[in-house]
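Lab channel / #folding
Pinned by the channel admin:
"Please post every new chain as: sequence first, then the structure tokens as a reply. Keep commentary short and put observations after the output so the thread stays searchable."

First post following the new format, from NK:
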Amino acid sequence: MKRLGLSFTAALLLGSASSAFAATVDLRIMETTDIHVHLADYDYYRDRHSDTHGLAKTAKLIRDARAEATNSILIDNGDLIQGNPLGDYMAKEHGLKAGEVHPVYKAMNLLDYDAGNLGNHEFNYGLDFLKESINDANFPYVSSNIYKPDGDDDLSNNDPYFTPYILLDREVTDHDGKKHTLKIGVIGFVPPQIMQWDKTNLDGKVVTGDIVEAAKRFVPEMKAKGADIVIAVPHSGLTAVTEQGMDENAAYYLSKVPGIDAILTGHAHQVFPSDGYKDLPGVDLAKGSINGIPVVMPGFWGSHLGLVDMTLDVDAKGKWTVADASGKTRAIYKREGRKAIPLVKAEQDILDAIKQEHEATIAYMREGVGETTARIHSYFALVQDDPSIQIVTNAQKWYVERLTKGSEYDGIPVLSAGAPFKAGGRGGPDYYTNIEPGAIALKNVADLYIYPNTLRAVLIDGATVREWLEMSAGAFNRISADGGEQPLLNPKFPSYNYDVIDGVTYEIDVSEPARYNKNGEVVNQEAHRIKNLRFNGKPIDPKAKFIVATNNYRASGGGHFPGLDGSNIIIEAPDENRTVLANYIFSLGTLDPSADNNWTFKDLPGDVQVTFESSPAAADVIVSDKIKVLGQGENGFSKFGLNL
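Reply from TO:
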């Protein structure tokens, strides 16, 4: 009887559990992000095959991951239609007619995506091109924090410009083979800074709001409409910096918004989970979660596939509960020393779908514009004055001086700002410009200037020139004169924000702390890294007027540079910066690339050697006796020393 009693009790407990949870369902959520038109496994700049990128390779991971799962969905997180020569060819050279399918959707429609989110670079070619592109996607798009302007500052009653979220009714199969209907909510977000970065394309047409505020507005609405789970898809990076509002990188803060069950992030071109995020509060790298919410960020250019695996329980009344969830990524290649080892092959049907546009882009990029008498590379662009930047700044200055001649601005000195766009960093050890002596083709011009920025000129004073350079000098760590191995480059500072201003001369004193943080806030009031700033050999006059040639991103406030918010733009050129560069090279015919060495590091007392990383190929082009090879670095880079 005792044993019978125990069995009866156990049966009661089992019956109670059965009524609490009628079924258990496994759901796999897959994410791609920041493809940037890298569809084929091909590098258009180097004009050769690539093992490290391409949606055609990610497609193999997608199909394998889908085959492993009983239930799955696939979502893209934006920055899709811009970012390499194929994207520029489609937008600027070929164009996109009504009814014509953009090659990104020729590829993606073969992979059965369930939803897509818009990234900031989707707006680089304007709203009309964006709409014409996405209208042939076989899946819906969402973006919740872009609104129609209504004339006031209260966004809570503005109508969304795009569909803010969708509710996907999906039939899923439980562990016992029974079918259920699961309502999956997907909500998207874009950095609100698109209003600065693409001011010309968006001003007066849309307004943007805070990412977290949009989540707080729409997630409860999604739940009220029956969403069983909510997937947040922010095209936004991860940071634990105190929330300011209107944050560019707000994905971390979404982990604290009630009602969100998973976060698929991007924008930062990083991988999560990974050791780079181990110090974020609330992070569980083994689980792939932040504050208990599964999170993934699958790299860039198709390098990884993001996977969130969820176990869902549903009770007899149809209420769903997340019992368990984890996030992880899969890569298309791995590093063995300096070599990239492919882990998958490109899917042929993807390559076949884009074959026509792919081959047309290659032919277009091979068209010649001039020739160079010497090699042009960016291996040392962050540690010494560099020809790859000098060519760009010379072209911008040439263009602006022609525009201002005979105008009200004639006679005001023209300076020119440029940055190293391809300087390794998160792009890896192959992400550098390297143009051999001889013919220069359009692919080389695009390699020197990889973004579709348009030229702008701003009118500022000498004091603002100094502050502009102080902001740029945040690219470097503070260096002690006491010696010891010290890394020079600040890994959190993007190389595209390291502006060199040509037309003035100056030194950078890295023994002082940075004056600005990355948000453009003064954090060391007394610090001045910029020394001996001179114009025409004399100390710069803080009140003197200068025209600075730059791009729309910087002139409109991109990068949070002091004194740059769009209000002092005097030239809004119709030409892209790289079109200006191509025309400049064409006008010269033969280019003699050489830097004018207008900036240097200020000498430190004693013999101080700092370290930095660059491509292994950089060892073959060292010309300065201050730079030497120290050995192998991390992730395929080489380690170099620089004497200050």
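NK: The two ends are 88 Å apart (CA to CA).
TO: also worth noting, Residues 367-477+495-597 form a domain with the 5'-nucleotidase;  domain 2 fold (CATH 3.90.780.10).
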